[in-house]
Design brief:
The chain is α+β, with helices and mostly antiparallel strands and 503 residues long. The chain is built from 5 helices and 19 strands. The strands form 2 sheets. The protein has a 16-stranded antiparallel barrel with strand order 1-2-3-4-5-6-7-8-9-10-11-12-13-15-16-19. A 3-stranded mixed sheet has the order 14-17-18, with no helix packed on it. About 1% of the residues have low confidence.
């Protein structure tokens, strides 16, 4: 309204000025003055029109602002209503929660019915969780002396069933294809793991032997830097690879961060040896898995202790020092004792490990004991930080994914049983008969190409260098073996390549 009033006043001013000019022109003005007056009138009329247009625009803007103000007021009212509803709902929820708590407390004060006990146990056990993990590998194996070459496949699924925060079940199935003309399926691990607190865990069932560092930690397909095992854990193992029993294990920090110690103590069924032989003899192979049927009297017990002396912030790498013992009876009352020491050292791209094992096996009838020794020393170096060779981005990237490896391992024992010698290649075994020499020696060279941290393509060159000495025992269908001195055994060469995936 104020704008329209201003416009009216402007119009009246224009009319009054025009009238005054007309009167002035009639009295004393000239035609030129009259023409000038007309121009001014037109200018005033044009200004008046522009002013009116601006007033219309301002009125439209005022209407729009009034509309937006009404919308804001409406939204504000809705928000106030929602806030009141939330306050009301919160009060209702608190009331219901307090009521349920009172009911629960009342139930706790009374004896639980079978149904109530079952429900309480279900809540206590928590959410069940199933995880599927494991590894798979495909190999090509060539042995020079036997002129054998073959492809082989191994699938090792691991089922993990977590009942709650303190109970875990683990089962491993080892499927090896082929073994001769058939497949081989094993259950090397099946344990219940009970976590009592941060420092103590109980394992019960079939477990990897907690002796040294290789069987339990380094043997998985994609974890082992080589394709084969060191000789002391391979075809002529000096300690049982698995056992059935109960473990107690834990760890603690004794110094700065990284200065730790861990322990494993256990009791199990104990060692047993090849039951297919008509009579026990020295050099007899250990059964890969022990059970009650093969060991009817006496249990085995042992322990492993590992020390980590370097704190993490010292920049000295990671050093592990270990000692293990295994003591038990076989064939009712004959002792089997083993002890070993091992180490592992990792510093940036360098990793080394080694161990020495000594075993004593009492023979029945007062015969000389079946003593054995085994050792290995391994080193590897990643090329990921080697300076660029300027061979192109693709080739440089390939080189930086490589790991170069070398390993020396050997065993000493008094005899080998001819019936136990196998030349069938399989994953982890190149098929060389030289491995079964009483004094077997092996140099292995490896090149690993790491596609991902759990996907690796491995190539291994094995040089079997056995020494003369010891005895070859052959039954040939008789109950008593024939002993033949083990002379010089021909050196052998083998090539293995493997693609392994851990998942």
């Amino acid at each position: 309204m104020a704008l329209r009033t201003s416009g009216l006043l402007l119009s009246l001013t224009v009319i009054a000025l025009a009238a005054a000019r007309i009167v002035f022109a009639d009295e004393s003005g000239s035609p030129a003055d009259l023409q000038h007056l007309r121009r001014e009138i037109k200018q005033l009329q044009s200004d008046e029109t522009a002013q009116r247009r601006r007033m219309d625009q301002n009125e439209q803007l005022i209407k729009e602002l009034e509309t937006q103000l009404r919308q804001v007021e409406s939204q504000n009212q809705k928000l106030n209503n929602a806030a009141q509803q939330l306050v009301s709902s919160d009060a209702k929820l608190k009331s219901e929660t307090n009521e349920r708590l009172e009911q629960f407390q009342a139930q706790l004060g009374t004896d639980a019915s079978p149904g109530g006990f079952s429900e309480a146990m279900s809540r206590y056990l928590g959410t069940h969780q199933f995880t599927f993990a494991g590894a798979a590998a495909g190999d090509f194996i060539y042995d020079r002396n036997t002129s054998q070459n073959t492809f082989s496949l191994q699938f090792e699924p691991i089922a993990l069933y977590r009942l709650n925060d303190w109970i875990l079940f683990e089962g491993t199935i080892n499927a090896l294809l082929p073994v001769g003309s058939k497949s081989d399926f094993e259950l090397p691990v099946a344990t219940a793991q009970i976590f009592l607190n941060d420092y103590l865990e109980i394992n019960a069932g079939i477990f990897d032997q907690p002796f040294g560092d290789w069987l339990e930690d380094q043997s998985p397909l994609w974890v082992n830097r080589f394709i084969t095992a060191p000789l002391l854990y391979g075809a002529e193992a000096v300690v049982p690879p698995t056992d059935i029993g109960v473990q107690a294990r834990g760890s603690m920090q004794w110094g700065a961060l990284g200065q730790d110690v861990d322990y494993t103590v256990w009791i199990a069924n104990g060692p047993s040896f090849d039951s297919a032989l008509p009579t026990p003899v020295v050099g007899q192979t250990l059964n890969p898995q022990n059970n009650i049927a093969l060991n009817s009297n006496g249990r085995a017990f042992g322990g492993r202790f590992r020390l980590y002396p370097f704190p993490l912030d010292a920049g000295l790498g990671r050093l592990e020092l270990g000692a293990s013992t295994y003591d038990g009876k076989w064939l009712n009352s004959n002792w089997f004792n083993a002890w070993g020491v091992d180490f592992a050292y990792l510093n940036k791209d360098l990793q080394t490990r080694g161990e020495f094992v000594q075993t004593y096996r009492q023979m029945p009838g007062g015969a000389a004991p079946d003593n054995r020794q085994g050792w290995s020393l391994q080193a590897g170096y990643f090329l990921q930080h080697v300076p660029s060779l300027h061979l192109g981005e693709g080739l440089d990237n390939t080189i930086h994914r490589l790991e170069l490896l070398t390993r020396y391992s050997g065993v000493n024992q008094r005899a080998i049983v001819a019936e136990e010698v196998s030349t069938i290649p399989a994953i982890g075994f190149n098929g060389s008969p030289a491995i079964f020499s009483p004094h077997a020696r092996e140099v292995a060279l490896g090149v690993d190409y790491w596609i991902e941290p759990s996907i690796v393509w491995q190539t291994e060159f094995d040089f079997e260098l056995p020494r003369a000495g010891g005895t070859i025992l052959a039954f040939n269908g008789a109950n008593t073996p024939t002993a033949t001195p083990a002379g010089a055994t021909a050196n052998d060469r083998a090539l293995l390549t493997q693609f392994a995936i851990g998942f």
